Amino acid sequence: MEKATNLDSTTYPRAPRSGPDRADLTAELASLAAAFRPLLREYAAQGDADRVVPHAVVESLREAGVFRLLTPKRFGGYETDLRTLTEVSEALGQGDGSAAWVGMIISTTNWLACLFPDKAQEEVFGADPDARVTGVAAPTGMGEKVPGGWRVSGRWSFNSGAPYATWAAVGALLKDERGEVVDQALVLIPAAELTVEDTWHTAGMRGTASNTLVGHEVFVPEHRVLSVPAAAKDIYPRSSRDGVLYRASFGPMLLLRLVGPLLGLGRAALDVVTEAAVSKPLSFTVHGRQADSVGIQTQIAEAALKIETARLHIYRAVDKVDAAAAVAPLDYSARAHI
Q1: Could you identify which of 96, 124, 204, 260 might form a hypothetical disulfide with 44, taking C-beta atoms 3.0 to 4.6 angstroms apart as the criterion?
Q2: How far apart, in whole angstroms, are the C-alpha atoms of residue 332 and residue 35?
Q3: pLDDT tens digits for 219-262?
Q4: Domain regions of the chain by residue span
Q5: Is 140 strand, coil or helix?
Q6: Whether 226 contacts 111, CB under 8 Å
Q7: How far is 171 from 237, CA to CA, in rounded Å?
């Protein structure tokens, strides 16, 4: 049975309510995420057994503001940046990889929803600032042109966080009246109009509940369609009244978002091995502790260096995406480098 409590305000700080400057806000949110590691570790085994992040953890992530990281301020979000998302995801990943992954996926798919026309954004976030959008970009759906929009059917696999979604952004090829494919798009669909097929049976990251979404002849109005080829060129149908976050380059943003939880998992693995080496013997040797072995010392040092090197590369790329959003789209050379 799931524990009844989620966030104890006497133990865990609440998400910031006012607006410090960007650097301070990033540090505060990352610190808050780090404070949740004991909670995430407490529920990690349950999430693995149940194959879904426990409701208590999802509620705690909501109260901590994780789902609002990339949501516009006009909807009550923090409207931060890719660096903040990466730091928060890394901190969460040190507690539980599945919880960190679900938090990251929902945060960034919320960002995707904010690239759609303003009418669609109002539908998603207007009445629910904590809306949870999940999705699958692969165009495994098909849309047929009908008056006022498209009739979409499809199956979308590996939809992380599906049990907690309120909306889904899924990929589809769009056909005109003659049956010819005219665009590849992401379409926004209320989660209630889709079904979830239980297909996520894995050895690891079981709690992400990355199951398959299924839709049959769902009507999608024109304002809930985002052209992927246009977005790949950083052409979005939204208005420009919000900040630079929504001018970030589409491809690099969606690629780099994935690494925060992985950095956290790497750090957690290193910590587990380092802590165990203090007391764990090295079998079939004269060493009563692994820590006394030069070979083990060298292997741990090499692992630590690889993790630190990865962080340096990732955060350099993340900062490049954030900086470019305030000036001009990244050129193709920068995108290839990332």
Answers
A1: 96
A2: 39
A3: 999 999 999 999 999 999 998 767 899 999 999 999 999 999 99
A4: 22-125, 133-227, 251-337
A5: strand
A6: no
A7: 17
